[in-house]
Amino acid sequence: MLRARYLLRRLAQAVVTLIAVTALLFGLLHAIPGGPLRNLIGEAVGADPAAAERAEALLGLDRPPLERYLGWVGGLLVGELGASWVVAPGRPVGPLLLTALGNTLLLTGSALLLALLLGGLVGVASALRPGSALDLGLGLGSLLLGGAPTFWLGMLLLIAFAVELAWLPAGGAQTIGRDDPLDRLRYLVLPVVTLAAVQVAAWGRYVRAALLEELGREHLRTARAKGLSEAVVLVRHAAPNALAPLVALLSLEAPALVAGATVTEAVFSYPGLGRLLLTALRAYDWPLVQGIALILAVAVIGASLAAEVVVALANPRLRA
Amino acid sequence: MATATGRLVRHPTGRVVLVVLGVLGLLCALAPVLAPGGPEAGSLSETLRRPDARHWLGTDELGRDVLARLLWGGRVSLSVALLVTLVAPAVGTAYGLVAAAAPSWAGELSMRAVDGLLGVPRLPLYLVLLTLIGPGYWSVVVIMAAFEWPAFARLAYIAALGALREPYVEAARAQGADAPRVLHAHVWPGVAGPLLVAAAVGVRARVVAETSLSYLGFGIVPPTPSWGNMLASAQSRIWDYPALAIYPGVAILLVSVAATLLGDALRDALDPTTAISRARDSERNARADRADRLAA
Predict the structure, then answer these.
(1) Which of A108, A128, A181, B189 is the most exposed, having the fewest neighbouring CB atoms within 10 Å of its CB?
(2) What pLDDT shows up at residue A36?
(3) What is this model's ipTM?
């Protein structure tokens, strides 16, 4: 009962936040001095007020701001995000976003999976043998990989595997005219490895720290004293406690999953949400920018909601 | 503080990274002397030269000396990081301390705003704002500082709240010390250390953020060189001259690794008792911070 009320309250808060975000987004992009068309029509048309006015009327920009905002939000409620201005003139923004979001989730999801898998293995191994060569390697690796900017790491991989060895394609998502999973996989390898490399060390260190702390607990001494084997102690008694905070942390990673690939997508010309944002910004295609920002906002709000729910379910003291 | 400085200088890695950062910073600061021709000097008849006695690191696609551009670019990249490192912690700390000293409802309300700012994915936000106000040196500095200070506000707020509950602070208050005096004399010494460490550790993220923005074409834009936009133009030549992509990246790596190690050394120097369990502590603090954000 308490739990249901808590969740409902959190949900209501999330909705209020989302409404505030749409107002903020709309206000920001339409508060540009000279109007949202300023950069778009440039000096040439800007010198001709009649042409600028015609363009504004065509796009509905001559209506009062509140009316335009309500129109936009009303559209959102029925799944209409407006039409693109420049990148795909006149076409609805929604389908463009969905395709890009799908590509981004494929990229970031695979990278996260790879990073968790490798990071978990390295973390467990080095927690079991603190001070070993592997443990020191993890420290050094996280220092170097954490220090290198993602885009530079991507460029190095590009030089090694696409330029010098020519094993893998240098950019894009698939060979034009071909549509088989194996081909797409070849295009995914470098971006996924780039994104994962940055995270492996971080997850490895996290798992190592969580497990080391857990391994020092007294209930493990009891478990060992009962005569349980070290493997059972690790899997049944240490791992569950070390994993609980990991799940909450993971749900906070969602915004990074959606947004964090921007740089990687730029390096490999991968047609995801981040690259679409860059394209839209360079073209001053504001409806498209608004749509992407909205997806990011939903991801952020949804992720923190999910994290709170996970924490609440795991920790009854936080319910009240 | 003097003893902490002494401990930092005697710290084995602290000493090395101080020298590395000092030498790098000095070289970049002296760019006008070392490379008086400026970052643009070059000849189109000498493009993409391999390293030789005249051009120690060769020339780029427009015949400009790579080493000279590296120094001039470093001036830009390092000074952006330095400026943000000076401004953001100062603003954030002041905000956090005031919020901690204010009545609790006001403090919590002002921290809500900070939490909201902290939750926003940084890079897309920077990209949108830089498109709105236009790219360039000061745009990058202002925007990065504007979204870096909340992290320090949060840190200062938590540390100050903790300090305010200490018995010695209560004693000072009971003796009639007013809020500014309590903050300055009793709270500040306790929060200065963690804030200094956080400021140093954050240098890595700041250098990476500026170079990423410049790489994407939204930060420092040519003709002003930055390590980031040098890498962007290097990427267009990776098929015929990939070496161009190496130098600026190594420079960024060097600075960010040195800054991370400097942060660790600072932490040891400020609080020698934690040196042994430092690694585990830092992980736990990071986790506690996350948990705080969840519970807030």
Answers:
(1) A181
(2) 66
(3) 0.81
